[in-house]
Fold:
Amino acid sequence: MVKCICCGSERDDSDNMCPVCGMPRLFGADVTPEQKAKAVSENKRKYLGNTGIYLTEHLYDVTENGIVEAGTRSVLIARPSELELGEISWMPESYEAVPSDREFCLELEVEKGSQRSRVEVAIAPGRVLSHKKLGVKLTEGFTFRMVVGDENDQVESAALELL
Ligand SMILES: [Zn+2]
Structure:
Protein backbone atom coordinates (compact mmCIF):
# COMPACT_ATOMS: atom_id res chain seq x y z
CA MET A 1 0.00 0.00 0.00
CA VAL A 2 1.09 3.56 -0.69
CA LYS A 3 -0.33 6.85 0.52
CA CYS A 4 -1.90 9.21 -1.98
CA ILE A 5 0.26 12.36 -2.14
CA CYS A 6 -2.85 14.52 -2.59
CA CYS A 7 -5.52 13.30 -0.13
CA GLY A 8 -3.44 10.99 2.07
CA SER A 9 -5.64 7.90 1.73
CA GLU A 10 -4.09 4.49 1.22
CA ARG A 11 -4.19 2.82 -2.16
CA ASP A 12 -2.86 -0.28 -3.79
CA ASP A 13 0.64 -0.07 -5.31
CA SER A 14 -0.79 -1.09 -8.68
CA ASP A 15 -3.50 1.60 -8.84
CA ASN A 16 -2.63 4.24 -11.39
CA MET A 17 -5.10 6.63 -9.84
CA CYS A 18 -6.25 7.29 -6.28
CA PRO A 19 -9.76 5.79 -5.80
CA VAL A 20 -10.70 8.66 -3.47
CA CYS A 21 -9.47 11.83 -5.16
CA GLY A 22 -8.42 10.68 -8.64
CA MET A 23 -4.83 11.86 -8.22
CA PRO A 24 -2.80 10.11 -10.93
CA ARG A 25 0.51 8.47 -10.13
CA LEU A 26 3.40 10.63 -11.18
CA PHE A 27 5.81 8.52 -13.16
CA GLY A 28 9.43 9.19 -13.90
CA ALA A 29 12.34 10.59 -11.96
CA ASP A 30 12.21 13.73 -14.07
CA VAL A 31 9.19 15.06 -12.19
CA THR A 32 10.47 17.96 -10.08
CA PRO A 33 9.15 18.73 -6.57
CA GLU A 34 7.63 21.93 -8.00
CA GLN A 35 5.76 20.01 -10.72
CA LYS A 36 4.57 17.53 -8.11
CA ALA A 37 3.32 20.29 -5.80
CA LYS A 38 1.54 21.99 -8.70
CA ALA A 39 -0.16 18.74 -9.76
CA VAL A 40 -1.28 18.07 -6.17
CA SER A 41 -2.72 21.53 -5.74
CA GLU A 42 -4.53 21.40 -9.12
CA ASN A 43 -6.03 18.00 -8.30
CA LYS A 44 -7.15 19.21 -4.88
CA ARG A 45 -8.86 22.24 -6.42
CA LYS A 46 -10.51 20.05 -9.05
CA TYR A 47 -12.03 17.73 -6.43
CA LEU A 48 -12.80 20.15 -3.64
CA GLY A 49 -13.60 23.14 -5.84
CA ASN A 50 -15.04 26.00 -3.89
CA THR A 51 -16.31 23.80 -1.05
CA GLY A 52 -16.77 25.86 2.07
CA ILE A 53 -17.37 25.01 5.72
CA TYR A 54 -19.62 27.42 7.59
CA LEU A 55 -20.47 27.73 11.27
CA THR A 56 -24.10 28.44 12.17
CA GLU A 57 -24.12 31.00 14.96
CA HIS A 58 -27.27 31.58 17.02
CA LEU A 59 -27.96 35.22 17.76
CA TYR A 60 -29.85 36.36 20.86
CA ASP A 61 -31.58 39.58 21.91
CA VAL A 62 -32.02 40.65 25.52
CA THR A 63 -35.64 41.82 25.89
CA GLU A 64 -38.06 42.57 28.76
CA ASN A 65 -39.15 38.95 28.49
CA GLY A 66 -35.64 37.62 28.85
CA ILE A 67 -33.22 36.32 26.29
CA VAL A 68 -34.87 35.61 22.95
CA GLU A 69 -33.34 33.91 19.97
CA ALA A 70 -33.00 36.39 17.12
CA GLY A 71 -32.09 34.13 14.24
CA THR A 72 -28.91 32.60 12.97
CA ARG A 73 -26.03 33.61 10.78
CA SER A 74 -23.59 31.60 8.76
CA VAL A 75 -19.90 32.37 9.07
CA LEU A 76 -17.29 30.91 6.71
CA ILE A 77 -14.60 29.01 8.63
CA ALA A 78 -12.54 27.54 5.81
CA ARG A 79 -12.27 26.56 2.19
CA PRO A 80 -10.58 23.14 2.37
CA SER A 81 -9.05 23.40 -1.12
CA GLU A 82 -6.84 26.17 0.28
CA LEU A 83 -5.51 23.96 3.10
CA GLU A 84 -2.61 21.54 3.12
CA LEU A 85 -3.31 18.06 4.46
CA GLY A 86 -3.11 18.31 8.26
CA GLU A 87 -3.26 22.12 8.28
CA ILE A 88 -5.77 23.92 10.52
CA SER A 89 -7.64 27.05 9.48
CA TRP A 90 -8.58 28.95 12.68
CA MET A 91 -11.43 31.40 13.03
CA PRO A 92 -10.12 34.74 14.30
CA GLU A 93 -12.49 35.06 17.29
CA SER A 94 -12.00 33.39 20.66
CA TYR A 95 -15.00 32.05 22.51
CA GLU A 96 -15.50 31.69 26.22
CA ALA A 97 -14.43 28.38 27.64
CA VAL A 98 -17.22 25.80 27.49
CA PRO A 99 -17.81 23.22 30.22
CA SER A 100 -15.44 20.40 29.52
CA ASP A 101 -17.34 17.69 31.41
CA ARG A 102 -19.96 17.19 28.76
CA GLU A 103 -20.17 16.85 25.02
CA PHE A 104 -21.10 19.91 23.03
CA CYS A 105 -22.37 20.30 19.49
CA LEU A 106 -21.43 22.57 16.64
CA GLU A 107 -23.84 23.30 13.82
CA LEU A 108 -22.17 23.53 10.46
CA GLU A 109 -23.06 23.81 6.82
CA VAL A 110 -20.92 22.29 4.10
CA GLU A 111 -21.31 24.12 0.81
CA LYS A 112 -20.62 22.34 -2.48
CA GLY A 113 -21.42 24.30 -5.59
CA SER A 114 -24.80 25.87 -4.87
CA GLN A 115 -25.85 23.11 -2.41
CA ARG A 116 -25.53 23.47 1.32
CA SER A 117 -25.98 20.57 3.72
CA ARG A 118 -26.34 20.84 7.45
CA VAL A 119 -23.96 18.84 9.63
CA GLU A 120 -23.92 18.53 13.40
CA VAL A 121 -20.57 17.82 14.97
CA ALA A 122 -20.07 16.58 18.50
CA ILE A 123 -16.95 17.52 20.40
CA ALA A 124 -16.26 14.97 23.09
CA PRO A 125 -15.82 16.04 26.71
CA GLY A 126 -12.17 16.65 27.26
CA ARG A 127 -9.58 18.69 28.99
CA VAL A 128 -10.22 22.23 30.15
CA LEU A 129 -8.99 24.56 27.46
CA SER A 130 -8.81 28.21 28.42
CA HIS A 131 -8.59 29.68 24.92
CA LYS A 132 -11.37 28.56 22.68
CA LYS A 133 -11.01 29.07 19.02
CA LEU A 134 -12.66 27.01 16.34
CA GLY A 135 -10.81 25.64 13.41
CA VAL A 136 -11.11 23.23 10.52
CA LYS A 137 -8.40 20.66 9.85
CA LEU A 138 -8.12 18.93 6.47
CA THR A 139 -7.48 15.23 7.10
CA GLU A 140 -6.83 12.00 5.20
CA GLY A 141 -9.09 10.96 2.34
CA PHE A 142 -10.47 14.52 2.00
CA THR A 143 -12.25 14.39 5.33
CA PHE A 144 -12.19 17.23 7.82
CA ARG A 145 -12.23 17.56 11.59
CA MET A 146 -13.46 20.41 13.73
CA VAL A 147 -10.82 21.56 16.16
CA VAL A 148 -11.32 23.48 19.42
CA GLY A 149 -8.48 25.07 21.35
CA ASP A 150 -5.50 26.98 20.07
CA GLU A 151 -2.27 26.44 18.16
CA ASN A 152 -0.68 24.59 21.11
CA ASP A 153 -3.50 22.51 22.57
CA GLN A 154 -6.51 21.14 20.71
CA VAL A 155 -9.44 18.77 20.94
CA GLU A 156 -10.69 17.28 17.65
CA SER A 157 -14.00 15.90 16.43
CA ALA A 158 -14.30 12.65 14.51
CA ALA A 159 -13.54 12.84 10.78
CA LEU A 160 -16.37 14.11 8.55
CA GLU A 161 -16.82 13.56 4.84
CA LEU A 162 -16.27 16.48 2.48
CA LEU A 163 -17.10 14.86 -0.84
ZN1 LIG B 1 -6.14 10.67 -3.12
Summary: The helical segments are 33-48.
